[in-house]
Here is the input.
Amino acid sequence: MPNYLVWRAHGEHGERVDQGVDLHEDRDRIDEMLNDLGMGVDRTVESPGQLPPEVEEFYWLLDASDERLHDYTQSTLLQTLTRLMSIKSKHNISNTAYNDIVKLIDNILPENHKLSKNLYFAKKILAGLGMKYEKIDVCLNNCIMFWEEDGTDKLDCCNQCNAFRYVQITNDEGESVTTKVAAKQLHYMQPKNGFYGSMHMRWPKEGKRPNKNEDIMEHLDGDAWKAVDNFDLEFANDPRSIRFGLSTDGFTPFNTNASPYSCWPVFIIPYNLPPELVNKDEYMFLALVIPGPEHPGPKLNMFMRPLFKDLKKLWRGVKAYDSYAKEEFTLRAAYLWSVHDFMAYGDWSGWCVYGRLRCPICMNDSDAFKLKHGRKVSFFDCHRRWLPFKHDLRSSITAFRKGVKITKGATKEANCKANIGMAC
Here is the structure.
């Protein structure tokens, strides 16, 4: 449906939580976000030094949101910085160009203004938003990570292929010199930084749901959700327990006319939100950016190790601060499923998605065949076996493959296409 930005045709009932929000409105809404994150928090209930460091940093950010840029404007320092950083990201402005623009603005603004002088200080101020990430050096050939957990963080070369960890340059005398610039880096943001205290995250236990007699399906009705509830009752009974999914795919961030480059972002999608919010891009957040330029292929699992290490910690529980209930608590989260296309599914699970046995459900029960001349495996005309046995198209020898009639019934796993996509 064209311009279908707000869900209204999926059986929603009652007042919508995003009602009245103009998705095309040209403003940053930073104040609304901060008010939502710190909703109802009384800072006087805790003595200084008793709050977690990240909460203290967030409260400092709230103070910055009220500080005007200078005496002759209503714009705050935080609003100005977030707008500048948004413009930098949207138009792909270099760090040097950003500093030159800020230097020009500095000359135009009145004296004693609060705007940071360069990009470095802007990032220091915005660090309280929780957008911190970790850079991990990786082998140029995707063999290993130079990671403290493996004891390889001190190495200068890969211990498998001997590739240099840092960029090699040639000086004026023709000698090869090793710099301290990593040849390849993985960008990683801890998942607990993306889970914030919002009343909407309690929706599975405390939100209003449609009448069960109505034929409306929600993500809470899935088998994976119910399996987690049956596996750990303590996890299921806590309304702050989080269920989430992962998704990844490759994309080209640069102009298609430029040299080929593909990076792989890994997104986390929390499923505690109501149906009208759960798949909105505002509520998905980035966990990993796997560098290119080539496809990671079967080495994808190597890049995922920092994320899975923290997901295990989240299952056991980590200390967090609930800004809605004004208390510290043990945050637990469970990984339910992944959402990929079929090619990414092969890299994610380690399954070979080529040849006749590419479908992990049907296996040898599929009707795939090789083309006569190109010898390429094709799944054309594998769908007629799901038709009723008396359907006219089953006996057609001209509409599909020449001279082929279909006498087989559906596969043993008739829900194959629902589980795997269009593999078969």
